[in-house]
Every structure is written in structure tokens, then in C-alpha cells.
Amino acid sequence: MLLTSSLVASAAWLASSIHPAQAVTAGSIVDGGDTTVSAMMMFVGNSQKVYILDKAEGNAAQINGHPAWGAVWDFNTHTSVAMDVKTNVFCASGMHLPNGSYATFGGNGAVTVGGNIGSVPTDGGSAASFDATYQDYDGRKAIRILNPCTDDDDFSSTKCQWFDNPDVLAMQKERWYSAAEALGDGTIVLIGGFVNGGYINRNYPNTDPTFEGGAAEPTYEFYPANGRTAEIMQFMVKTSGLNSYAHTYLMPSGKMLVQANYSTMLWDPSTNTETDLPDMPGQVVRVYPASGAVAMLPLTPANNYNPTVLFCGGSNMTDEMWGNYSWPAIDTFYYPASADCQRLTPEPTDGSAPAYEQDDDMLETRTMGQFIIMPNGKLLVVNGGENGTAGYSQNTDVTTQYSQMPYGMSLAAAPATKPAIYDPNAPKGSRWSNDGLSSSSIARLYHSSAILLPDASILIAGSNPNVDVNLTTFFPTTYKAEIFYPPYFSSSTRPSPSGIPSTLTYGGSYFNITLSSSSYSGSANTAAGNTTVAVIRPGWTTHAMNMGQRYLQLNTSYTVNNDGSIVMHTSQMPPNANIFQPGPALVFVTVNGIPSNGTFVIVGSGSVETQPTSAASALPVNQLASTDTSGSGSGSGSSGNNTKNNGATSSHTSAIVGGVVGGLVAFGILGALIGICLSRRRRAANRAPASLSSANAYALSDRKARVPASMMARGRGGESGVVESGGGSGERDGFGSQELSADPYNRQDYNASSDWNQSTAALTAAPPIPPYQDDVPRRENGMSF
Ligand SMILES: [Cu+2]
């Protein structure tokens, strides 16, 4: 009898799962199939599809007669197919639009084999408009729009494909590694970036911090521009060098937190005025290529929706260590990343001055770690390395020959393969734990990515610290995806809420979500008090960032019925679109720490416009059942309590490990001299001959792992076979085949996917964008990116 009922419970979980039927183990990392292209960038389009972008490179997968650098991965089958992308999307930024479409911004010029400049040169030979071999177009100004489609749509139709035609729709400036953040009306702000790539965004010494001779783009601009022209952001000048992929978070006031180098400010996008905030303690750099893990903590009724941003890891390399556009001055792969974490509440409501607050160190040093906010309000950190930085290069100032580079082109080493979980509500000293979490066998270094899936698991993919596809180096071009199952997957059943609307408004009438008694186990009255409704935007992931990622817990009250069903009376969004910008999101209902599957919703009006708001309606008072019944759902997640009633269990193991790592960090902070000594010592250790099993062909999760001499001398991958075929394709014929002739976001018929079914009001068409002419000379393409 007991066996039978547990089988039934197991079957119920499988039926409610939107995966293929397979048992999953909490804390495990399992194969997620192949991504066709290396997943440098990803976003979740709907409940079926994850869209993936790579740089233009020599992927084996072909589409329309050239290597693919776009793909779509199916959540149900864990398989992917190539999608055509016209322009080189290398190191773009991206963001959702209010109607559920996604946009990507900028990238690289057209390249050919080996990352070399494509066959149709432009800009005096420093870039290319097209390459005949890879058939990629210049993507530096591109704005590409995708309307997510489902299997009910025709994927071969124009409306399901990337709109990618810079002749029609483009930014005013050439940008890669720009920041992107949405405003409260859904407008996207693009900030800064490189014109033509490089390791960091400066020459050294830094004599032209504004433009770097034309290689830096210190301006911001809007999409849709609606007549607004690009303007210089003074903060980009101040932070010159370490200012690409700036961390940007819109605040409730409408100002934006901007963090780059070790500086911080609040920026008013309506007036372009800046208010300095304190510097990052310890001068730890969090932006690319230090690439710390950064996220806004959950916005909750308890914190009155006032944002706090968490910065973890990155690098405390000093100014002279960073080098310039070409490469770092030190052997970064021997230099420990930072484990330091700081919190910042940029707009305190108690009258205090904004100040960084020391948080618990991560359990390990980590560069390129990234935060995924889970439905239970905890943050997963995943991916990255314990040593070094993002970027790749054929040499450094110290190791001048590529044949002597110990990890090929990778500027990071010692992959951090074990995720960890941060509980923002736990007492200080006990916020981090990796108890019960598995390690991956795949290194996820530069150009890897991760994102929350609608079933509350996490998709992990990518890694390619190489100029072009290289399958035989230490840290190869990676096509394998993995799925991480957080501890709440220990529950055999999940809440199955009904009544979640397809759109949420800013303020207005509350709605009811009903949970049947099979959605939880134990006391109904207790479960009701332990239920949260969260709106999560997983964001657009690249370079260890999830641009636009936000978590907002809605206000709720409850009525518990005597049949064990629970009605959650749920408020709409707070009546301020700056707190959670309009656009697509997932709604998760979490009971006793166990989340439901996410339901896709559109927050706001679906259009780029000042969002309609109304006052929040009062919620009914809580009503417990007079006869408390027990739910028929089985099991309860090891993650235990949710954000509302957090018990904050602390782990002795994590405290001990944290202490050890903390010691290492303190050592790292001693500065350049000791850091370099340490580097030399590690380099010597790394170069000592040793045997290495084939299963561990790189220094996986052990920064002291040794690399055999036989693996140190390697050919220059991807440099052979450069094709320089000539110009006939420079006519941009490829674009002519696209029928759309206007900004696709502004087309009413464009966003008609059955999954969204969201009407899209027409926008005022943006005025024609004048061609941008830079007066300053361009630099040659750098070696490092
Ligand atoms: Cu990149």
C-alpha cells in the first residue's frame, strides 16, 4: 500500500512536469543536450523555447550555406536547431521589449576564419561589412528583434525569425559590450561599449579616457530613440578602461544605478545628471573582464520593494595589471579571483546615505560567476573560474608566446564547477551553502551562460574562450548544455496553481490564485502562511550577466477552505513601473519552499509608453480553515522555508569553508606585489611536469592543478586557412531577401505568437537615423576580446 501510494505520487510529479518523463535528483547537474552553436547568449522566449546566440565563427552546424551562430533549443526535447542571424552578434547586449519580443544590440564587424577581418573591408580596413566565407554582416550597430514562437507557429515564417537588417533598424553608434537596461516605459537604454573590441576599453597609459582614439564609445542612446540622440555619459569617461558591460539597475525613482570599474553612481536618464555613490570597497572590479556575479535581491513587501544590489566576486587586480586593449599585463590565469561580496541599497528610505555593506564571502573565489534568482527567493551562483578573468588572448605581457600560454587562449583557469546558493534572508555568516549540490564535469568559463527555465530548473550552457571554434584546446568551444536541479526538486509533487492571469497591471484589482490540496503536504493553514507568489524575469544572459533579471514577490493574503484548497488573494504589481519594468515574466507560486512551474505573463500594457497605473486595492484579511486538513502532495524540499518565513538554517560546513576562503581573499587584497609573487609561484607549480588523467585534462576546480608539459606547446588554433575571397557579396544582398521594411517592433502584425497573444499598439515610428561618422581614427582589431 505504501509502495503504491509513493508510485502514484511519483507519477503525479512526472505528469505535472513539462519535461520528458525522467526522474530528477535534487542538486544534480544533468545533460541538457546540444545547443548547435556555443551558447554565448540565451533568453527564454516562452514555455517551449530558449533562443541561443553565438559569435560568427566556424561552427559545424550550417544554415543557408554558412556556419550557424543562432539556434533555438526546445525545453521538452532538449534538442536544438540552427536559426539564421545575418550580423555578427559577438558580445552584444540584449533586453526584453514590453510585448514579449527580445532585442539584441551591437556586436562585432564581419569576421572570417580565425576571427580575422572579413573579406569586404570597411573603415579603412579596420573592420569589414561582410565576409564571403562565414557570410556574416557587420553587427556593430545592429538591433535585432525576435518574436518568440512555439511549435504551434510556423518557424519558417518571417515572424518567427530574427529581424536583422541594420540598413533598416540600427543604433546610432557602434557598440559591443554595451550595457542595456529598460526604463519604466519600456524604452531600452544602451550605455557605452567598445567600437572595435579589445581586452579592456583603454590604451595604457590612458591619455584619451573619453574616446581612446576612437576605440571607446562613451555615449548612451535609447531604443526606440524617438528623436533622442546619443550623448556622452561622463561616468564612462571617469571609469575609462573598465566600463564595458556596466552593471545597470533601474531604481524606483526612475534613476539608474550604474557601476563600473570601482565607481558607482545614480544616473538620471531624463537629464543626464550623475550623483556619485561610494566606491566599491577594496576596489574590487565587478564589470567585464573581472566579471563578478551581480544581481538585484528579491523585491518583497518586507523590503517595501526598495532594491538592494549584491556584488560578488570579480577581481581585485590593480590598475597596472589590467593592461590595455591588447591583453592583460599579468598572467591572469594564475591570479585568484575575488570571493568578496558587497551589498548596496542605492536609494535608502530611512534617510541614511547609500553605503556598501560587507556581505559573506562566497565559498570560493570566482570570476564569471553568475546569479540566477530562484522562485524560492534564493540566488544560485554558477559558472566561472577561481582564477583569472574573462577574455581570451594569445599572450600576456608576461607570457609573450602563444605556445607558452598554459591554458590556450583562456585568461581564466581553475573552473568553479560547483554551484552555491545564497540566502539573502539568512543571518550574516550563514548565507552561502553548497551542501548537497553536485559539481559539473564541464568547464564553464568565458562566453558561458545560465538562465532560469519555466520549470524552475536552471539551464547552463556555452563556454568558449577561443577566437574561433577550437575543440581540442584546454577549454574548448562547448556545445553541451546542462540542467541544474535546485534542492526543491527533492519534492515529488509541485504546487499546481490555477487562476494566474495572462497580464499583470501596475496597481488595480487583486486576483485569486487557487491551490488544490494536492499542491502541498502537511497542514493547509500552515501551507497558506508559507506561500509566496513571485514574478520573475529571468533576463537575457551573456558574459555572466542576466540583463533585466528581477524578482518581485506580490502582496498576498489567503483564504483556506475546509476541503484543503487555498485561495491566494494576490495584488497586481506595485503601481510604479520603475520597480519592475513592463514586459514578459514568469509567475511562480511557492508553497513550503516548493515552486510551481512558471506561468508566462506580460507585465504592463505591452507597449513602449508611460505605463498606466492605478492604486493598489486592499486585500481581504487572512482566513484560516476552521478544520485544518492536510495536503495530499508528498514531500517537502530540502530548501525548506521560503522568503516569507525564513528559518535560515546555517551550515557548519559552509561556515568553515567560508573562513578558509576568506583567508585567501585577505591574502589577495595585500596587493600587486604579493599577487605577482603568488602568480609566479603558481606558474612554477603549474608548469611542473605531472601526469594528468584524460578525464581531467584541465585544471578543473583546483587552482593548483598541474599541467603536463606535453599540453603546453600547442599550435595556434583557428589561424589556418584564412580565406580572403573578394568583394562581390558586399552588396548586402542577404538583407534584401527580408521582406520587413520597418522596425519590426513597431509592426502591429509582428508579435502575433500564439504563446503571447498580446496585442501590440503601434508606436510612433522613430525618425530616420542619420549615419554616424566618427571623426577620430579607428584602431586596428585587437588580439584580445
Ligand atoms: Cu565576449
UniProtKB/TrEMBL annotation:
Q: Where is this region: Disordered?
A: 624-647, 713-785
Question: What are the Galactose oxidase-like Early set domain coordinates in residue numbering?
Answer: 494-602
Q: Where is the composition biased (Basic and acidic residues)?
A: 775-785
Q: Does the keyword Transferase apply?
A: no
Name listed for the protein in its UniProt record = Glyoxal oxidase
Keyword annotations for this protein, in alphabetical order, are: Membrane, Signal, Transmembrane, Transmembrane helix
Instruction: List membrane-spanning regions.
Output: 655-678
Q: Compositionally biased, Polar residues: which spans?
A: 748-759
In this protein, which residues make up the domain named Glyoxal oxidase N-terminal? 205-488
Q: One matching Pfam family, short form?
A: Glyoxal_oxid_N
Q: Where is the composition biased (Gly residues)?
A: 718-729
Keyword Magnesium part of the UniProt annotation: no
What residue range is the signal peptide?
1-23
